[in-house]
């Protein structure tokens, strides 16, 4: 994949997330890695107005290599870099605040395995990581307890994190996590969740 295509994917997914109400205008962030370089979405930029030339390029240590004037990296860049450090096979990281999955995170409730085939096939239980103030290392200080080995995490009182080999795949995981959370919530209101037998 070329750098231009990867950057186009980031911007495309950012806009899709906004259109699908997975983030508000200034929420969430997406990054992608190519060898020893990472491109991350800028902080406080409207998802509707984001373009490829606004993305910030940095190395895996967080040193900025290219940053357009007037922009700065997402405040959650450290979280993305920690995932890349712990998971050498991951090439894309996505963070959003989709409603149902974030509701699980606010309640410190993992999305359980054993009830939805799709959850069992792709994720297993989706755990909740301990709370950390957004934009600080507290958010990801315990990631080593969960990664590698998980494709999705719930961030306590905060949102959702997915990781994959490509940006579109990380987005598909985020969609799947939100759908699972919504389905399980509704099923729980209808009656007692029935395990897969």
TrEMBL record:
Protease as UniProt keyword: no
Domain Class II aldolase/adducin N-terminal: 8-185
Pfam entry (one): Aldolase_II
Keyword vocabulary terms for this entry: Lyase, Metal-binding
GO BP terms, alphabetized: pentose catabolic process
GO CC field: cytosol
One function term, GO molecular function aspect: metal ion binding
Entry annotated with the keyword Repeat: no
UniProt xrefs under PANTHER family: 3-OXO-TETRONATE 4-PHOSPHATE DECARBOXYLASE-RELATED, FUCULOSE PHOSPHATE ALDOLASE
Name of this protein: Class II aldolase/adducin family protein
Organism taxonomic ancestry: Bacteria, Bacillati, Bacillota, Clostridia, Lachnospirales
């Amino acid at each position: 994949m070329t750098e231009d295509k990867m950057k186009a994917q980031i911007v495309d997914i950012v806009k899709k997330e906004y259109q699908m109400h997975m983030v508000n205008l200034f929420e969430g962030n997406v990054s992608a890695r190519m060898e020893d370089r990472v491109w991350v979405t800028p902080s406080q930029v409207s998802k509707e107005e984001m373009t490829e030339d606004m993305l910030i390029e940095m190395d895996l240590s967080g040193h900025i290599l290219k940053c357009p004037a007037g922009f700065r990296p997402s405040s959650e860049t450290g979280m993305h870099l920690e995932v890349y450090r712990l998971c050498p096979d991951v090439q894309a990281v996505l963070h959003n605040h989709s409603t149902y999955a974030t509701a699980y995170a606010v309640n410190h409730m993992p999305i359980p395995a054993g009830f939805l085939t799709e959850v069992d096939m792709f994720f297993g239980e989706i755990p909740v990581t301990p709370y950390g103030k957004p934009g600080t290392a507290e958010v990801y200080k315990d990631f080593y307890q969960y990664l590698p080995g998980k494709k999705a995490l719930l961030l306590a009182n905060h949102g959702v994190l997915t990781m994959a080999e490509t940006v579109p795949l990380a987005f598909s995981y985020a969609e799947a996590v939100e759908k699972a959370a919504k389905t399980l919530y509704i099923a729980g209101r209808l009656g007692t969740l029935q395990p897969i037998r």
